[in-house]
Amino acid sequence: MRRIVVVSIIAAAVQVGGWCTSAQAQSVLLYGLVDTGVEYIHNANSAGHSVARLQGLTGELPSRWGVKGVEPLGDGYNAIFTLESGFNAGTGNLGQGGRLFGRQAFVGIDGPLGALTFGRQYTMLAWASVYGDFIGPGIYGIDSLDAGFSVPRSDNTVAYRKSFSGLTVGASYSFGRDASPAGGSNTPGASPCAGSIPGNAQACREWSMLLEYDAKYWGVAAVYDRQNGGPGASVNLFNGLTPLPMSGSGDHDSRLLVDGYLKFDKFMFSAVWINRHVEADSLLTPDVTSNQFALEGQYKVTPSLIIDSLVQRIVNSRQDTRANMEMMRTTYLLSVRTAVYAQVAFLQNSRNAAYAVSAAGGTPGKGMNQAAAMLGIRHSF
Deepest in the core among 22, 160, 165, 187, taking most CB within 10 A? Predict the structure, then answer.
């Protein structure tokens, strides 16, 4: 039934667009995930108030649904596409600033020489952290101290990836990294930066490069990502301070990520280092560098019971902001598709910092510590 519905929708879209194609050998899949639960945060604002809320943004994983397809072209080559929409499970609202396919919307060719894709898609930052950051895009993770990792994707992007003998190489280039709709943004706390400005070829560009190696029981990855500034753009360090202007095309916000992981039977460990550097060609805006370090561990007690943990620290010497954070999560699989989980997290801010423990928001006052807990359920289809 799902396949019939999806094919019907695609057929209707084809007719409206005034073109037609043959899909006799095409495989089309409808998929999705719904993840939500109840969250409690202590010191959820500068007044020291607490909050309990139904969390719709993310729990263990962000809620989404999508359609992807593959059509064989011969000689090992396939035409591929993905349309993926994020949403808030608590309200039903669209995510990513109200975009219909705000998570992914791309088409391309995949084959022996690698995958070449065009559209809105993940940068290499996302692919580098698939194994090294197995806590993932949860509500209490690396994203808490740098929300840019909750959205490592860009608009108007050409991307390439190729894997062979355990080695993966990749690169992406965006002609305009954030063509957000009104009231939306690709990066939390930042302003849109659409790019493709006549006479200003570098404005709002973004590019990234990936080098990764995965063996049976270990792996390492390194990725560099750089975002250029543009008219009206700004950059958020997520430490409670005012975002910095990044309106010049020579301004840039770069991240270097290096991670690695080890597997031992039921155990898995990983380490992540992220160096972020913000540079603006302005005497009024100082360059800012931060370093974020994370250690993660996972223990599969049984095939159905998994315990995850994370400790991390971020240091921003220029703005004199620092924070430590710890979390622990227990997940129980009720079936292949359904799981329940419980997680707790603690964050300690330095005197001038106001990092938030929850990726869903709730910024404390400067120097305030936070504690958070969440009970949730997720189902995939």
Answer: 187
Residues 62 and 343: their CA atoms lie apart, in Å, by 16
- Note the residue count of the chain: 381
DSSP states along 26-82: -EEEEEEEEEEEEEEEES-STT---EEEEE-SBSSSB-EEEEEEEEEEETTEEEEEE
Look at residue 341 in the predicted model and tell me its pLDDT: 98
Return the H-helix or E-strand segment holding 145: helix 142-145
User: Hey, where are the domains in the chain?
Assistant: 33-380
pLDDT tens readout for residues 243-283: 888 889 999 999 999 999 999 999 999 999 999 999 987 76
Nearest to 213 by CA among 223, 221, 205, 204: 221
Strands 288-302 and 305-316: antiparallel
- Burial of residue 76 (CB within 10 Å: 0-12, 13-18, 19+) is exposed
- Mean confidence (pLDDT) of the chain: 90
pLDDT tens per residue, range 215-224: 999 999 999 9
Q: What is the mean pLDDT of residues 79-91?
A: 95
* Sign of CA pseudo-dihedral 244, 102, 257, 62: positive
CATH topology of domain 33-380: Porin (2.40.160)
- When pLDDT is averaged across residues 78-102 and rounded to a whole number, the result is 93
Residues 6 or more apart in contact with residue 125 via CB below 8 angstroms = 149, 152, 208, 223, 225, 255, 257
Q: What angle do CA 175, 176, 179 make, to 5 degrees?
A: 150
Query: pLDDT value at position 188?
Result: 60
- Smallest CA-to-CA distance from 67 within 9, 136, 111 is with 9
Rounded to a whole number of angstroms, the distance between the first and last alpha carbons of the chain is 13
The residues facing 326 across adjacent strands are 311, 346
Beta-carbon count within 10 A of 164 CB: 9
> How many CA atoms, within 13 angstroms, populate the side-chain half-sphere of residue 241?
17
